[in-house]
Amino acid sequence: MQNKTYRWGILGTGQIASAFAQDLQLVNNAKLHAVVSRELTRAQDFATTYGASKSYDALGHMLNEQEIDILYIATPHSLHAHQSIQSLTAGIPVLCEKPAVLNLHQMKEVLHCASKHETFYMEALWTRFLPATEMLLEIIESGEMGEVHQVEAEFCATAPIDPLSRLYDLSLGGGSILDIGIYPVFLSYLLLRMPSSIEASGQLAATGVDQTCSMTFKYPEKGKESALHSSILYDSNMPARITMSKGYILLQAPWYASPGLTIIKAGEDSRSIACPPKGIGLYHEILECHRCLSNRHVFSEKWNHQDNANMLELLDEIRRQVGVQYLHDLAPK
């Protein structure tokens, strides 16, 4: 199975789908086989650009042909749950762009479907699989810097204030929290796990989505906390800082696609470790999918289904405190 060439399908033809297709071309045992878009001409154009054999205007048509080994979902957030379930029910493994779904209720439905059909499912939280993240975890696990005490991270990227755009559309799961705030929340969760308390506040647009969000996570252990921030009103290019009992580590900017680490240990000169991502960085999550499929795993041990559920629990509480409510939140639980 290690030498198998995996045939990928991509659902969606937007910016992140293009980035994924570019990195897919860097993977030796990967081939883009099929593309789906609501507009067939867009699927055809995308297929021509990235060398796919098939184009469709409906997901069901592609799934019925059973010609792909795994599907990458790159559509608006509000469509992820339904499309993941549709694919998993057809027995097609799924890599779904983050956020995997809009809320914990949807996440439980998707995970139940993956379990029922014994089919691989992973959220495309690509930062988890980057060389810099792996190196960070290796240093922490070695104990050379002591314990993690604080995590400081932010993701801020200016977006046009346009009520008709995806980021400002409440029906599509818009706002900074789910789109980019998920990154600092992820880093805090990865290093300190579930907090004992969350304090979140933000600024809402007229459409009801959040434009900025500030989050503080506190933990039972004295002195352990995270300070996190996201915004679509302004830019920031700060490194993420992990304060430890023997110094601190910086994930070099942009930390969510970090090219390396800077380690400052008490009483020693600082040192840097270069570990840049390959391609745009999505390359590494593709390799993880292939590893899982070749070993017949239904989830990744590095970013498993319990991690998915825990993240949505955190994001739900943050949105509740900030006041962001999606129509899908009103669905029967």
Q: Largest beta sheet: what is the strand line-up?
A: 8-9-10-7-11-12-13-14
Shape: globular
CATH class of the largest domain: Alpha Beta
Give the oligomeric state.
Answer: single chain
The succession of helices and strands, N to C, reads EHEHEHEHEHEHEHEEEEEEEHH
Keywords:
eight-stranded mixed β-sheet, alpha/beta, Rossmann fold, 333 residues, six-stranded parallel β-sheet
Summarize the structure.
The chain is of the alpha/beta class.
SSE order and pairing:
Elements: E1 6-11, H1 15-24, E2 30-36, H2 40-50, E3 54-56, H3 59-65, E4 70-73, H4 80-89, E5 94-97, H5 104-116, E6 121-124, H6 131-142, E7 148-156, H7 176-192, E8 197-204, E9 210-218, E10 225-231, E11 240-244, E12 247-251, E13 260-265, E14 271-274, H8 283-294, H9 305-322
Parallel strand pairs: 1-2, 1-4, 2-3, 4-5, 5-6, 7-10
Antiparallel strand pairs: 7-11, 8-9, 9-10, 11-12, 12-13, 13-14
What does the model show?
The protein is an alpha/beta fold. The chain folds into two domains: 6-126 and 282-298, NAD(P)-binding Rossmann-like Domain (Rossmann fold); 131-276, Dihydrodipicolinate Reductase, domain 2 (2-Layer Sandwich). It contains nine helices and 14 strands. The strands form two sheets. Strands 8-9-10-7-11-12-13-14 form an eight-stranded mixed sheet, covered by helices on one side. The chain has a six-stranded parallel sheet with strand order 3-2-1-4-5-6, sandwiched between helices. A hairpin with a 5-residue loop joins β13 (260-265) and β14 (271-274). α5 (104-116) packs antiparallel against α9 and α7 crosses α9 (305-322). The model has no long low-confidence stretch (mean pLDDT 97).
